[in-house]
Amino acid sequence: MAGSNPNAKPMNLTLKVWRQKNRTASGQVVDYNVRDISPDMSFLEMLDVLNEDLLRKGDDPVAFDHDCREGICGSCNLFINGRAHGPETGTTTCQLHMRKFSDGDTIVIEPWRANSFPVNKDLSVDRSAFDRIIQAGGYVSVNTGGAPDGNEIPIPKDIADRAFEAATCIGCGACVAACKNASAMLFVSAKVSQLALLPQGHVERATRVENMVAQMDIEGFGACTNIGSCAAECPVGISLENIAMLNREFLSAKASSNNLS
């Protein structure tokens, strides 16, 4: 394993894993023991070892979401010992390494807990509510022409930086899972801010924020009460300032809108 520590001692761990057959079934926590886990493994590689052991025994492997395993896609949504993505700050589950734990530790692994994110099976949840919010307005549909030269539309650096920072949201859902109200405001505000800051997004900025907030409410996400747990657990550091911008965009849109609902 590249970059591994040859002196690192393997660990034996107890896992308490949420098992649920499907959306309608009742779930429960099941205990598993995994042995000889390298501290240099990622958390998902450790789950792979668990599943290999289960398959050898003829048992059903633990379902969990993953894709890129590089902290880009946002698929690896797990609650680990009561924290979204685990104990490492600014890290997705796939970037979490087992050296953050100690030999003999007990690790509790659960799916996201939110009504808007129903459990598909075990640790896998349905986050398509986020997709529907994006479909409601998180895009630019006006004709912006072909790809312009990078410097053709001058954008002040501070604006470009703020738009880029908002655009780094990977839509993992940690903000919803960490929020006591299961609010999606940090996710929605990042998408609204990203486009509202750039000239290409100005044409539709009023309808965009109205439609996205309306869809967020339809999906059943809770209200934001500014606790800040969403930003604290966000693996890419999306700022609470985006929620303030979303509120300003929404109030401005409503002030000039015929849609008063």
What can you tell me about this protein's structure?
The model has no long low-confidence stretch (mean pLDDT 93). 33% of the residues lie in helices and 13% in strands. The chain is elongated, with a radius of gyration of 21 Å. With 261 residues, it is an alpha+beta fold. The longest helix is centred in the last third of the chain and has 15 residues, at 241-255. The chain has eight helices and seven strands. A hairpin with a 2-residue loop joins strand 3 and strand 4 (83-84). The strands form two sheets. It has a five-stranded mixed sheet. A two-stranded antiparallel ribbon has the order 6-7. Residues 160-190 form the 4Fe-4S ferredoxin-type domain. Belongs to the succinate dehydrogenase/fumarate reductase iron-sulfur protein family. This is Succinate dehydrogenase/fumarate reductase iron-sulfur subunit.
Question: What does this entry show, briefly?
Answer:
The chain is an alpha+beta fold. It has helices at 43-56, 128-137, 157-167, 174-178, 185-197, 205-218, 229-233, 241-255; strands at 11-19, 28-37, 79-80, 83-84, 106-110, 119-121, 124-125.
Strand tally: 7
Q: Average pLDDT across residues?
A: 93
| H/E element sequence | EEHEEEEEHHHHHHH
N-to-C span: 56 Å
Tell me the strand order in the biggest sheet: 2-1-5-3-4
**Helix coverage percent:** 25-40%
DSSP strand content: 5-15%
Over the alpha carbons, how many angstroms does the gyration radius reach?
A: 21 Å
Overall SS class = alpha+beta
